[in-house]
Each structure stands twice: as structure tokens, then as C-alpha cells.
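Trying the structure run again after the queue cleared.
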Amino acid sequence: MEDAVPRDAANERRLHPWSWLFVLLQQLKQFIFPLVALLVFGARRGGGDGELWASLAPVIGIAVLVILAILQYFTYRYTIGRDGLTVREGLLHRSRREIPFSRIHNVVVHQSLLHRLFGVAEVRLESAGGTKPEAEMRVLGLQDALALEDLARHRTQEAPLAASEPGAMPRAEGTTLLSLSTPEVIRLGLISNRGMIVVAAGFGAAWQILPENMIEQFFRQGAKQAYGYAEGLHLGWLTGAAGGIALIGIALALVRLLSVALALSQFHGFRLTEEPRRLMVERGLFARLRTSVSRRRIQAWTLHEGILHRLFGRRSLRIDTAVAEKSGQQDMRALKDVAPIAPPDACDALISHLLPHAHWPRNDWQPVDASARWRLWLPSLAWLLPVTALAAWHLGGWLWLPGLAWMAAAAYAAHRQARRMGWTLDGHLVAVRSGWWSRYWRFAEIDKLQALRLSRSPLDHRCGTATLWLDTAGASGISAPLALRFVPEAEARAVHERLATALAQRRLHW
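Done. C-alpha cells:
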């Protein structure tokens, strides 16, 4: 066997013969609203030729998309070599892309229900940085997709070429670190807010798509009918209030059931496996997803525990990776959830296994400055006080009672959060923790830090504190920042100097 596969026309491969259909479906998703609008509103226009062209326009648009999808099938070629992948595409505007396997950081194999019916899969090869994948093959035969994924995951100079042959079977899977049973996935659905997110997104889309004021009129008429029905029953105010609370409870229960259904759809059969240098996750009920990432591309970790997590005795563990993402969006297919839900001991064991130098869980947390207690309370007080005063002025002084109770509760929450806040630092890891109602621990290896920033607000000057912000790759859109807040100025400057010296002397690993 030769040492390398020549990259010429004789060794070029095409996508699966049904790939044009999946490209067409993807394009239809992008243009479905313009086509529907053209079909609906164009049909309302009267008059001869204009009405005829308005009726034919959607058909012409779909025909153009079909032609473009078929052209992409005939013009897309790829060649697998020993050290990388060559992709050629385009008819008039041609491009040739060389993708070394050593630059591929994340491999995603996606199978929707339609993919599974046709025996095909979509393959995405991602690298660090950029706004789109290095290669997105829509679609390959399932065996070819798994063989390409296996070759990219095990890229070495000694990798056997047999793995790149069509129909080659992938290597044996690695060690299983975590698997979720169906009851565990149901707990994940009960804990998560995925159903509420879908409902909110549906309302937003309906508000944008449907005619103006239609949603408002729908709710107004529904409220009038419900009020009229309740008035006809001659219910007392106590019974009416109980009925309203029952309706709200039913609505919340339905949303939670939707969250369970979404969790089962996305995380059924979840399995986290480990190979010598990579982590891989396989999950999904209807659409199966296999995604892997190099362990050295993991930049930061977030351990989260909400109030419902504590009720069920669970936590979740997520990672930030240095891979390409779409501009301003988070890719739902990227490997983010290392442990979507797991007992605290299992999460700690997983961290200790993957980060043996972390010595997790930590017991050397440094407290924040005492001023954090009232400074965390200030944002709530800034809006509660004027809102309560305005409401009491217009509706009566008795509203000061709930307003003051809310302020007291906010002060208690700020006090508890300040007691939990802390940070820790050693020669390998920097970590912060915060939150009371919803808790999180965020940490990163020092070798993964890219930049440091020491900042002081007017309140910091007044209280003699500072905030140290730590940046890693792939941390955009993270709600829990890696920052040491409310640290006494002398300690903050000492930590900044220590980390700056370490970053200058060490090589960035990402």
C-alpha cells in the first residue's frame, strides 16, 4: 500500500446521491416564510396576468432551489489523504480547500429522522475560530460518514489508510464516562426550562408573522369569554381565585411536560465516552448526534446547580471549546454538555478524572470583601424603591408593606450570595463560585487563559476593591463570567501579577 493517497480526480469522491434532496430541504427552511407570504398574499391580488405570475412565483422559486441543489451535488468533490482533506466546489466560482486533520478540533455526525430513513448522515468538521465549519458535508452514506469521523478523530502520521476507504468500519469506542437512563433524562426535563423557551419563541414568531394586533385581539377575546363564563357561574371571589390559580398550574404543568418531551428528544441515549485525546458524546431519540472534541480544546468549565437541581440532588457540567461558531449564535450540535444532569459526586468525579491537577472539589475558597453584601443589594434597591414609592402614591400607602418585604428578601438574598462568593488559585487552576438561589462554579486551567483585565469602578475606589476578568477562547455568550469580583485591591493586584507572570512564561494550550 502506498504511503499517501494521491489527491487527483481519480480519487475524488462525491456526496451521497440523495444529498441534493437534503440540500433542498435546508434551503426551503431558509426561504419558507418568503415563499408562503408570496403564495398567500400574491393570491389576494386580482387581475389576469398579475394573478397568474403571482401563483407561479412560488413554483419558479422552488424549481430554482432544486436546480441549485442538484448543481451542488455535481460540483462538490472531496479527496481523503493521509494528512488531510481536500474539498472542491463551485461551478462558475470554483474553490479548493485544504483541511489538515491536525486542524480539525470538533467532529459532528448528525442524523435526523429523515437521515436515518435514507441511511445517510451529515458531517461537520470544525476548527478553532472562524464563523463557519471548515467542511460541512450534506450528506454522506452512514458508513462513509462514520469512517471519515473515525479518521479525523484518530489523525496521526501512522493512521492506517484503510479507515479512509468507503464503507470502512470505525474503531472500537472508548471508555464510557457517563450515560443517562430514561428516568434521568426525564429529571433533566423537569429541571430545565426548555419548554418555556420554546413557548416564548413561538409567541415571538407568531407576533412577527401574523397580522398586526391579531395576537392582542386573540388574548383580549379569550379573556372576555373566560370572564363572561365565570360571571355566569356566579362564583365567589375565593372560588374564582382558586380557579385562576388552577389554570396557571395546568399551564405550568403543560410547559414542564413539553420540557420533558424536548429533553427526551435531545438527550435520550446520552453517552459520554473518552479516548486517549478526545471526548465524544452520542445522544438523541429521533435525530441522532455524535460529536467529539479534542480534550486540549476545552477552555473552561461551568458547574451549575439551580433550585430544582438541589430538589432532585443533581448538577450539570458544561464546557467551553475553541471551535468555530456561527456569528452571534450558539450551535446546538456542538459538544457543550459533558454532564447534562448527574449527581454531585458524579460531577466531581468527572472533573477529577478529566482535570487530575484540579484537586476537585476545592476547600480553599477565598472570601470576597464584606462590602459585597450591600453592593449586591444595590441593583434591586435601585428599582424597588422608586417603583414602590410610585405605586404607593397612586394606589395607597399600604403598598409599602409588600415593597419593604421584597427589599428585605432582596437584602437577605444578597447577604447569602456574598457569603457563597469566593475564588481559589493554585499553580494549575483558577476558579470562582457564586450564586445562592442558583449556584455555579466556573474554572479554567491557567495554561488556557488568554488575557487578564483589572478594573475598578467608582464603588471599587470607594471600598478599596477591584475586579479581575479572565478571558479564554470560546467563552462568548456565557452568562457566568470567569471573574474575581469584590476582591480587596492589594489581593487583586497580587493575583494579577502572579497570573501575568505565569502567562508570560507558559505556552498557551488551546
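The first strand starts at residue 77 and ends at 80. Worth checking whether this holds up in the mutant runs.
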